[in-house]
Amino acid sequence: MASLDREKRKGRETGWRIRWTDSQGRRKVLRLGKISRRNAERVLLLVERLLEAQELRLPLDSETTRWVAELGPEIAEKLARVGLLARRPISVKKWLAEWYEARRACGYKPASLVCWGHVIRDCVRLFGDKDLAQLTEADAKAFRDDLIARGLRPTTIQKRLQHCRTIFGEAVRQGLLQKNPFEAVRVRGGRPEERRVYVPIETILKVIDACPSIHWKLLIALARFAGLRIPSEALSLRWGDILWAEERIVVTSPKTEKQGKPYRVIPLFPLLRPYLEEAWEAAPEGTEWVFPEEWRRRAMGPFGWKNCNLRTGLEKILRKAGVEPWPRLWHNLRASCESDLAQAFPLATVVKWLGNTPAIALRHYV
Question: Which of 84, 94, 130, 239 is 20 to 30 A from 208 (CA-CA)?
């Protein structure tokens, strides 16, 4: 009734497969992947029992019924796709939990897991117990409208819808959905230039003068004069990364580590040097990290780097200095640094120093 053999693609064996012809003369293939021959033969036996029950229109015997009930979700779904079993209903909540856990187990960055977590919580709140196969474009539009009603920024909504297309696109690829309900659901994204503000050096010097400590001065200087990401790159600095003689700084970059760029090398910019020297002279002998361990401990949470009230602290300093806050307190400092550098150096060199790309730089920074 059914046959078991090795599947080959481009001369290479890719795993076991079971082939048969159904009652209407259509050829069917069940691909098992790279499993042992013993397990492949067990699945072959199950397939033959299911085919026999279908052809004779008989109920499954107790042993086969128990076998089917104990099947894992992956093989059960494969059997459902070829018409041997009824598809097991799976709720949106359960599917999202499985999808998230698979990504967590693969070692994705904590920041990515946090972003996906926001999307998953929103989906579960709106239609968590709904059968995944019954999810429609109307549900996706309700999701979008809910985000709009909550007053989230257009860019945030656009990004969450993009995550939804990725997540539920995986469900389509696995055969759990006929069509991605989020495929055609869009929203006009925000305009980056609306929150793009250039912070002059004169203003930053005034802000630095109002700082309560050496480390606050250095943190702001690293953001504005060297374009470091706050807090991840600044609080990852070691004194060993400061190459005084070569006038270079090795910047550890957690954000780009997964893209094969765990660090980059930047000049020790003249405007930055005095603040680094002041912090170096005040550092106890044998100190490894540029910033106090207490700062690093507060900034490192269970999901990676977090803001640790640095925005609140900077707002207090701005108020003390009599300076009106700009929209994106830390990002605008990094963007202003890149804008200054782009006036004096080729953009290809600048983006290498700042750790982004020309397209991103022109859209969000320069």
Answer: 239
